């Protein structure tokens, strides 16, 4: 019997992307096998982290890397690293930041909420978030003003679709901070496909999720400057104790990196494009919706399917269709569109062909014949 039947759990078709409340992603065979093997073994955790360090450096071209519990903890621990360095006294003192640089400057539009506000991940380290600019955007002058305080620990930038407003290029923001000797952390979250691009901005540390597109168990990956990665690892004797990566997570990260390195990206991209194109043709034959494929808004290497709902024909608006898909069995989760637009999106990356068929069948049942 499967896990869903054993524990009486809702069956899900996840066309919403790597979404934390749905268990994020599917790990491949190689990751599952490695994780299962890790569970019954002992390891010197320091050696495991050294192996992760080497693998992450090879994978990303960064000087160094480490795995922590998740990306949210990676934000807290990278901020902590910029406040404490490797000082044992400072690490032991956190979240008491007396005598340390503690201001974390971030553009107001980058104050994202990925399930909790990113400012809380900053405050967990004892730091004080200082927003610059407005929701509508920020300028280099806004950054200069924020960074001119005497107690700045780092500049925090976010490179995801959650970011609001227009801003300067990330690399220009990094350069402004560096002219003042301030280190820069970029929260790259789901953007493991773009990690080299994020490192090329000059950022001192970049965090990405292990469990989103990379498909490891839950893990936050931190890559960048060797001294700052060492300072992140050193937090394990401080606040990082509550945010450590498990042995199975680190082994899973190693297996996931190997799988990514073996992946034929050209073939993978073609496969994703074909999947979306086929879905769009089939969904386009339904009444009440128009189907198109649209690029990922943050430059990830695949498209999503967009359905524009005509409520007069469909008999319901886009929000009602999203709900109707969700309340059926299996429960189908899609991405809601903008509140003022009759649209919804489907990300098909994680879906099996049979699941795509099931989505189309459900749509045909919900829409007029
Ligand atoms: C998902 C996400 C996080 C948090 O990652 P978790 O590993 O789920 O805790 C942080 N920042 C952004 C922008 C995200 O999308």
Descriptive overview:
The chain is 42% helix and 18% strand. With 369 residues, it is an alpha/beta fold. The protein has a seven-stranded mixed sheet, with helices on both faces. A five-stranded mixed sheet has the order 1-11-12-10-9. Helix 4 crosses helix 10, helix 7 packs parallel to helix 8 (170-179) and helix 12 packs parallel to helix 15. The mean pLDDT is 96. The structure holds pyridoxal-5'-phosphate (PLP). Pyridoxal-5'-phosphate binds next to helix 4 and strand 6.
| Ligands, deduplicated | pyridoxal-5'-phosphate
What's the total helix number?
15
Compute the CA-based radius of gyration: 22 Å
Question: What is the N-to-C succession of helices and strands?
Answer: HEHHEHHEHEHEHEHEEHHHEEHHEEH
Q: What is the strand and helix layout of this fold?
A:
Elements: H1 3-6, E1 12-15, H2 29-39, H3 45-60, E2 64-68, H4 71-84, H5 88-93, E3 103-107, H6 118-123, E4 128-132, H7 140-147, E5 152-158, H8 170-179, E6 184-189, H9 195-200, E7 205-209, E8 220-224, H10 226-234, H11 247-262, H12 265-284, E9 289-295, E10 303-309, H13 311-314, H14 318-327, E11 331-336, E12 343-346, H15 353-366
Parallel strand pairs: 1-11, 3-4, 3-5, 5-6, 6-7
Antiparallel strand pairs: 2-8, 7-8, 9-10, 10-12, 11-12
Helix pairs in contact: 2-11, 3-11, 4-10, 7-8, 12-15
The structure holds pyridoxal-5'-phosphate.
The site of pyridoxal-5'-phosphate has 14 residues, from helix 4 and strand 6.
């Amino acid at each position: 019997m499967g896990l869903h039947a054993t524990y009486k759990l809702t069956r899900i078709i996840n066309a919403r992307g790597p979404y934390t409340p749905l268990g994020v992603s599917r790990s491949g065979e190689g990751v599952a096998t490695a994780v299962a093997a890790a569970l019954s073994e002992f390891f010197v955790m320091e050696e495991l982290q050294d192996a992760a360090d080497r693998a992450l450096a090879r994978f990303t071209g960064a000087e160094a890397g480490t795995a922590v519990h998740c990306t949210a903890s990676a934000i807290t621990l990278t901020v902590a690293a910029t406040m404490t360095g490797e000082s044992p006294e400072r690490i032991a003192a956190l979240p008491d930041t007396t005598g340390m640089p503690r201001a974390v400057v971030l553009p107001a539009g980058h104050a994202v909420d990925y399930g909790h506000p990113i400012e809380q991940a900053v405050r967990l380290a004892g730091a004080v978030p200082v927003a610059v600019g407005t929701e509508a955007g920020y300028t280099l002058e806004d950054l200069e003003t924020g960074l001119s305080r005497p107690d700045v620990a780092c500049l925090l930038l976010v490179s995801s679709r959650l970011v609001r407003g227009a801003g300067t290029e990330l690399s220009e923001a990094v350069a402004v901070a560096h002219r003042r000797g301030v280190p820069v952390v970029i929260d790259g979250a789901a953007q493991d496909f773009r990690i080299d691009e994020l490192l090329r901005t000059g950022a001192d540390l970049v965090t990405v999720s292990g469990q989103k597109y990379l498909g490891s168990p839950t893990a936050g990956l931190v890559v960048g400057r060797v001294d700052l990665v060492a300072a992140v690892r050193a937090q394990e004797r401080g606040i990082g104790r509550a945010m450590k990566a498990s042995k199975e997570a680190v082994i899973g990260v190693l297996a996931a990196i190997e799988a990514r390195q073996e992946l034929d990206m050209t073939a993978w991209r073609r496969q994703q494009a074909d999947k979306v194109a086929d879905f769009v043709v089939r969904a386009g034959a339904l009444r009440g919706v128009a189907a198109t494929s649209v690029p990922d808004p943050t430059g990830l290497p695949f498209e999503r399917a967009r359905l524009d709902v005509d409520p007069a024909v469909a008999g319901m608006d886009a929000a009602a269709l999203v709900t109707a898909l969700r309340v059926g069995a299996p429960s189908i989760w899609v991405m809601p569109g903008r509140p003022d637009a009759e649209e919804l999106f489907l990300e098909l990356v994680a879906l099996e062909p049979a699941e795509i068929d099931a989505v189309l069948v459900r749509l045909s049942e919900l829409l007029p014949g």
